[in-house]
Design goal:
The protein has 7 helices and 10 strands. By secondary structure, the chain is of the alpha/beta class.
Length: 201
């Protein structure tokens, strides 16, 4: 299975390229790549037009694709990743999630047979940038993008979804750190603080 990393640009209210920020001795994007490298056959990084290609290293093949629908929210990035992927199912994660849990990711990937989407549901909120999508999702997503409808929830109503929630998540990630992402300077400080008080590499 491939992994698709959505490499968004500036963080909200951070004002600069967040993916190059160093957290726990590695850039944010490298932390993400290091985890998905453990669970994937290939990594595909989706960047915005004009965005510099992130500097990362991995043991598996890493490719870069430019967003086909720039400015169309995460849905456009997901679409770009799916049509560029060589795998029937792809794990999609955001490039600013420093605490991804490989065991939880493997669990999601293991549930993908028979579903179009496998997605965590945390306190009633979906986690679309920590989910597995089938290539069959590309058509419905494109149709929605062409109508300028960007809500991922709308797309999910058209496909078969397996939600993962509660104890099923907490077996692997009791603190729900997997879903922490960085948009602000405060988020960045919190991530560095968490790593400063934990044994997580």
């Amino acid at each position: 299975m491939n992994s698709i990393v959505l490499a968004g640009g500036k963080g909200q209210r951070l004002g600069r390229d967040k993916l190059s920020e160093v957290v726990g001795g590695r850039t944010l994007i490298q932390r993400v790549v290091d985890v998905v490298d453990l669970v994937s056959d290939q990594i595909l990084i989706v960047i915005a037009p004009g965005q510099s290609q992130p500097a990362v290293s991995s043991r598996t093949e890493t490719r870069v694709a430019t967003d086909i629908y720039p400015g169309m929210s995460a849905l456009g990035g997901i679409y770009t990743g799916l049509v560029s992927s060589t795998s029937p199912h792809s794990l999609v994660v955001a490039g600013d999630m420093p605490f991804l849990n490989p065991a939880l990711l493997r669990h999601l990937m293991g549930l993908s047979a028979g579903f179009n989407v496998v997605m965590p549901l945390v306190n009633g909120e979906i986690e679309p940038l920590h989910a597995v999508y089938s290539r069959d999702c590309a058509g419905p997503i494109r149709a929605q993008l062409e109508e300028d409808r960007l809500r991922i929830r709308d797309f999910l109503e058209m496909v078969r979804v397996r939600y993962v929630e509660g104890a099923e998540i907490e077996e692997f990630d009791p603190g729900h750190l997997s879903f922490f992402n960085i948009n602000t300077a405060a988020d960045l400080r919190e991530a560095r603080s968490v790593l400063g008080h934990s044994h997580q590499p």
